[in-house]
Design goal:
Blueprint (H helix, E strand, L loop, with lengths): L5 E5 L3 H13 L3 E5 L2 H5 L10 E4 L7 H10 L6 E5 L4 H9 L4 E4 L4 H13 L4 H16 L3 H11 L4 H8 L3 H15 L4 H10 L5
């Protein structure tokens, strides 16, 4: 990870901002904090290289609105969003808008550091993306029809209960299928699964 990389932390919770900044500093990663999306956008024309780490749910402009505005302004810094359990659907929507990853609370220090390092090291490599897409397609073909249905529901932001209601099965059955899907798709986290869904070659 380049020494001049800076992580831009956007969160209305001062304690959270300071906690993340302290963690990054302990790992030798420089950061800059902002109390709102507007504060970040005020200097968006000259942001230092690195990634943006933002909460999804904030007063005023939300993290999702921030992502859209950054895209409109052609700010290319990769974005990682932080989400509460109830906001997973919002995080999925953010990934569709261009976010590179999301962290679901509570998350470990190592998960956050790994996500930040990956985001900062991210390069626009279409060849690598193509290879990743082909690998995801191959794993997807090994899923049963029901596993594919659960994959699409969960990756689309449904909770286990919502997926169960949609598919007409019990939440416990969804949990079993979800575990199978995670194993077959080689996904360690929910964000991995969402990323794979976005990498999949559209049918037809």
């Amino acid at each position: 990870m380049p020494a001049d990389t800076l992580v831009h932390i956007v969160d209305d919770d001062a304690a959270m901002r300071e906690s993340i900044a302290f963690l990054l500093a302990s790992a030798g990663i420089q950061s800059c904090t902002y109390a709102s999306a507007d504060a970040l956008l005020a200097g968006s024309a000259s942001l230092d290289r690195g990634c943006i780490l933002t909460d999804v749910r904030m007063p005023g402009m939300s993290g999702l609105d921030l992502v859209r505005e950054l895209k409109a302004r052609r700010v290319l810094n990769p974005v990682v969003v932080i989400t509460g359990h109830a906001d997973v659907a919002l995080a999925v929507e953010a990934m569709k808008a261009g976010v590179v990853d999301f962290l679901e609370k509570p998350f470990s220090d190592e998960v956050l550091l790994r996500a930040v390092r990956a985001a900062c090291a991210r390069v626009d490599d279409e060849a690598a993306k193509s290879r990743a897409s082909a690998a995801v397609d191959e794993r997807y073909r090994n899923l049963t029809q029901r596993e594919r249905e659960v994959f699409e529901a969960i990756a689309g932001g449904d909770s286990n209960k919502e997926a169960a209601r949609r598919l007409g099965i019990s939440p416990r059955t969804v949990e079993i299928y979800r575990a199978n899907v995670m194993a077959k798709m080689q996904a360690e986290t929910l964000s991995d699964l969402v990323r794979m869904a976005l990498l999949r070659t559209p049918p037809g």
